[in-house]
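Researcher: We're teaching a course module on how sequence relates to structure. For the next exercise, students receive a sequence and then see the predicted structure as tokens, so they can try to spot secondary structure elements on their own. Here is the exercise chain.
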Amino acid sequence: MFTRIDHVMICVPDLTQGIAQYVRMGFNMHAGGEHPGKGTHNAVALNNEDYIELLAVRDPAQYAASGKAGTWNTGLTDFIAAGGGIRYIVLQSDDLAAEVVAMRSRGVDVGDVTDGSRCTPSGQMLQWKSAVLGPKNPLPIFFIQHITPMVERRKQVSTGNHPNGVYTLERTYIVANDAETTAATYAKVLGMPQPKTVKGTVIMSNMVVFQIGAHGLGIVQPYAAGPAADALERRGPGPFQALYRTTSMGAAARWMQEHDLPPPARGVRNTGEQAMLMTPPDTFGAYIGFVGPE
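Model: And here is the predicted structure for the students to work with:
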């Protein structure tokens, strides 16, 4: 079964610059390593059970030689050239082979399970299995099952809390022209009932939110000007925001102010909670939100 959102993949034109910017936002970013034969490299910020991935092209020639249709890195350079941001939301499974069989039984076009790996700067080899959707279901999600457990993956990074107090992903958002119709496709792919539509007040959108473990996967359709409408106009349908839960929004805001970032926009969620939002010019193309106590 799908157990959680494993991570969001944020694609940036330059990894060093991306790391520096997300550190300014209060994330403990660490060089993740290289993807053998792919021409890409990444950096990660680990939360309790999920993480942020910044991905960039390391070797353009190697990337061009490795790319083929039906893999997660297809079209990466075009995506970055168009502004970057959140390209994929990656869902974790505890039995990916069985999940692929189940998806195919529902008529979902999904590829075979393949092996993946990357070598960390310390020489540690991290391994996983992944599967991507086929051309009949071109959704901005793919699926992963980790072979290397989290306790081992944590050895690549230093311990310590993020200065912005973030400890978990709360929800991710994918904007669509028609939320209910698009959500029906996600329900088929995920093998989950389609949730009812609710009104989102920060992103000014009607939302259908699938709960996957502790995390929400929101399919949204804007009803007024706001982040979702902006993303839809700039980039078309696709992922545009990751919302993180923090122990202190005040501490997060102070850290960003001390590191010369503009004050995050403020809003009130339909739950009554306050939320803050960093905008694409300051995040390499994504909306990054924070929710939690002051």
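Model: If you want an answer key for the exercise: Helices lie at 15-24, 60-66, 76-81, 96-105, 150-153, 179-190, 227-235, 249-258. The first helix runs from residue 15 to 24.
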